[in-house]
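Translate structure to sequence.
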């Protein structure tokens, strides 16, 4: 069953956005897909680790951002500067309450005001004041790259020079330009006015600013120290001054600039044979290099006229996809470009801490949204703040993503078992609010006339199984809580299960541990017989501990440990076990024909009897790596249980893109297992004065015996539709099973195929 709602959340940035399909297992003669779902769930959950968490939002952020972007895209671009200014002033009212807008959105609003005032209204003083307010709200804020002009940049520069910033754009290796490139420079509070140079100095300017830097260092005013030190170094390039500048920059949080200056100090000190300073600067440079966070910016495919900026600095082609050192704190990636001739844009802010590496995948979307004229009119007519807030509340629409589809799968094997399984599924997701829910409904139609059925003198039979499932999740910050429930309804078996999964995003979603618990309650009966007359209760407690790790920009590792505690009698009420006398049993051979077995077996019909409890344990690891146009995925799973059965399963898929809309993948799977401890080819039954003595535990289920299995197949996905949001998926597998110590058959060929149609609607 293709049930996608079990994921802990939907990823916003998908480094490995490939479909992964798992084969179906079989229990007796019925298709059991729980194993496929259990294996799929951790991968889906792991996929969320690839997206940085959005910055915390305030209630009016979305509406104000829409107004800002659409004002610039429409009114400002069309030269309607008065209209643009009026609308932005309305947006200011939406952020009047401190808690109504985040500092980032409020800063963006004032940058837009300054842009209109400087570029359109030609009011540089007012523009400078608006820009200064923006910088005060968010020191890392930058201009809108697509809406700049010399007048705007001049007002911005004047506003910026009046205050400090701890923000940073990509680093520069030029120590003289480092502070300015990062936005870390400050305006000199005290300027040189012609004093004579101090003793040992060639220039009065150099000695004056050095003394100011020393005083700032003593006062722990690190940015002032770096600024004065820089001015002194530019007047007189002393190595000790550069060393002082690097130290002040490091303590001010300008790690990228400090590293560049420490490296320049090492080079200069080595050249002048100042060994102690060179060694000390090298040691500090090494310490900083290990601490500096990095950002990897992945460019979009099929985009033209692409411009990507990191905190206002344009990134070159060779920087894209590479690790870019940055100072710790919030960093904003802004991109513009064209897709199929249409202008599109992207913006995302990430917060990087010491030693972290954040990945931002640029996904261009249509620029802005149409201005809600009704919203603007409502805001203009509002007489009170409450009325103003009501306008925003009424304008809000629920941003939903809907995915639904149909799947039809079929199975046939050489043991005369046939299964057809139609499925419908849907999933609704609200990515901004962090919740989603979905469900599916599957029907299995099973027809069987296998050797085991013939051996018990049963006729060929056909029955249906119905499997409804529902689930949903809600994010609370970095914690995602998932609830799910499912049923399986057959004429002689009713299975119910409920469960929950709690996952938490750590280290910018590069590590996502999760804990799951599921409880199952099954009722096994006999077809045509009321559960009140005959039934067996089976309970299961399943615990799953998983974690996913983003190893680098293209690789992900998922580990998983699961334990299932089962109690109840799962013996099949239809399965009769042939028994043999002590002298005949040693001569029974694997694969013995039905006629031969019937000739030598004891006449009594003995029902299967399994242990009344079972503890299962599994350890799995999955590794996936994305190449430029393909993905390799490998998984290994080790299994053991209290019945003595041990197994290993290896699964490999290589998915590669053929053009923009087609993906194909070969599939290989190998499975090997030992038999259960009580498994026997020929069970011995002895006649005694008190009756026939049979083994306490016995089974005819060859899936509990030793076997080898090999699966090979091929799949493809074709995207179509105007927005490529329709997908047609076709897959097929050939499954060969070799039974090593069983009666009747020694091998089985199975053939499985599935056809899925899915639609994404945003």
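Result:
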């Amino acid at each position: 069953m293709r049930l996608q709602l079990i994921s802990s959340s939907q990823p916003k940035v998908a480094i490995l956005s490939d479909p992964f399909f798992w084969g179906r297992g079989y229990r007796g003669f019925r298709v059991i897909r729980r194993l496929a779902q259990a294996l799929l769930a951790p991968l889906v959950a792991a996929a969320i680790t690839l997206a940085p968490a959005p910055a915390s939002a305030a209630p009016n952020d979305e509406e104000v951002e829409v107004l800002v972007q659409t004002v610039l895209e429409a009114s400002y671009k069309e030269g309607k500067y008065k209209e643009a200014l009026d609308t932005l002033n309305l947006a200011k009212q939406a952020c009047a309450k401190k808690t109504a807008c985040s500092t980032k959105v409020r800063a963006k609003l004032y940058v837009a005001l300054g842009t209109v005032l400087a570029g359109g209204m030609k009011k540089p003083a007012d523009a400078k004041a608006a820009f200064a307010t923006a910088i005060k709200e968010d020191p890392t804020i930058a201009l809108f790259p697509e809406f700049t002009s010399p007048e705007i940049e001049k007002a911005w520069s004047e506003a910026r020079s009046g205050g400090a910033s701890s923000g940073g754009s990509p680093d520069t290796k030029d120590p003289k330009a480092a502070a300015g490139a990062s936005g870390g420079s400050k305006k000199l509070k005290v300027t040189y006015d012609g004093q004579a140079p101090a003793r040992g100095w060639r220039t009065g300017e150099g000695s004056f600013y050095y003394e100011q830097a020393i005083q700032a260092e003593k006062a722990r005013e690190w940015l002032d120290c770096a600024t004065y030190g820089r001015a002194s170094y530019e007047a007189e390039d002393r190595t000790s001054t550069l060393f002082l500048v690097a130290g002040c920059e490091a303590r001010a949080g300008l790690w990228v600039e400090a590293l560049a200056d420490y490296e320049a100090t090492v080079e200069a000190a080595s050249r002048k044979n100042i060994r102690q300073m060179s060694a000390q600067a090298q040691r500090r440079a090494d310490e900083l290099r290990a601490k500096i966070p990095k950002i990897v910016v992945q460019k979009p495919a099929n985009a033209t006229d692409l411009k990507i900026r990191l905190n206002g600095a344009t990134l070159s082609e060779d920087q894209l996809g590479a690790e870019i050192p940055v100072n710790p704190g919030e960093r904003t990636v802004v991109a513009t470009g064209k897709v199929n001739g249409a202008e599109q844009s992207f913006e995302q802010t990430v917060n990087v801490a010491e030693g972290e590496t954040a990945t931002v995948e640029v996904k261009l979307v249509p620029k802005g949204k149409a201005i809600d004229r009704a919203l603007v009119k409502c805001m203009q007519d509002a007489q009170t703040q409450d009325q103003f807030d009501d306008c925003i509340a009424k304008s809000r629409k629920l941003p939903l993503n809907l995915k639904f589809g149909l799947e039809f799968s079929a199975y046939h094997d050489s043991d005369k078992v046939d299964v057809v399984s139609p499925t419908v599924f849907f999933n609704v997701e609200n990515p901004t609010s962090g919740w989603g829910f979905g469900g599916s409904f599957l029907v299995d139609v099973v027809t069987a006339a296998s050797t085991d059925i013939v051996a018990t003198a049963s006729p060929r039979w056909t029955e249906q199984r119905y499997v409804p499932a529902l689930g949903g999740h809600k994010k609370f910050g970095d914690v995602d809580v998932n609830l799910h429930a499912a049923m399986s309804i057959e004429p002689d078996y009713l299975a119910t299960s409920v469960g929950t999964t709690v996952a938490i995003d750590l280290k910018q979603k590069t590590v996502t541990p999760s804990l799951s618990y599921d409880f199952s309650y099954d009722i096994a009966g006999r077809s045509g017989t009321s559960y009140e007359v005959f039934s067996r209760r089976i309970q299961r407690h399943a615990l799953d501990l998983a974690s996913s790790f983003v190893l680098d920009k293209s690789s992900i590792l998922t580990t998983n440990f699961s334990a299932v505690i089962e109690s109840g009698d799962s013996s099949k009420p239809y399965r009769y076990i042939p028994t043999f006398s002590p002298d005949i049993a040693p001569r029974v051979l694997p694969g013995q024909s039905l006629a031969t077995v019937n000739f030598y077996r004891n006449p009594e019909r003995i029902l299967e009897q399994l242990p009344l409890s079972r503890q299962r344990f599994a350890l799995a690891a999955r590794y996936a790596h994305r190449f430029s146009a393909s993905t390799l995925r490998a998984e290994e799973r080790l299994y053991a249980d209290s019945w003595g059965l041990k197994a290993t399963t290896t699964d490999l898929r290589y998915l590669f893109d053929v053009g923009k809309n087609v993906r194909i993948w070969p599939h290989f799977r190998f499975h090997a297992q030992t038999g259960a401890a009580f498994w026997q080819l020929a069970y011995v039954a002895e006649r005694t004065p008190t009756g026939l003595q049979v083994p306490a535990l016995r089974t005819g289920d060859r899936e509990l015996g030793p076997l080898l299995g090999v699966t090979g197949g091929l799949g493809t996905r074709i995207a179509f539709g105007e927005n490529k949001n329709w997908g047609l998926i076709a897959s097929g597998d050939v499954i060969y099973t070799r039974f090593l110590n069983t009666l009747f058959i020694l091998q089985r060929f199975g053939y499985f195929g599935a056809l899925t149609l899915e639609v994404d609607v945003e």
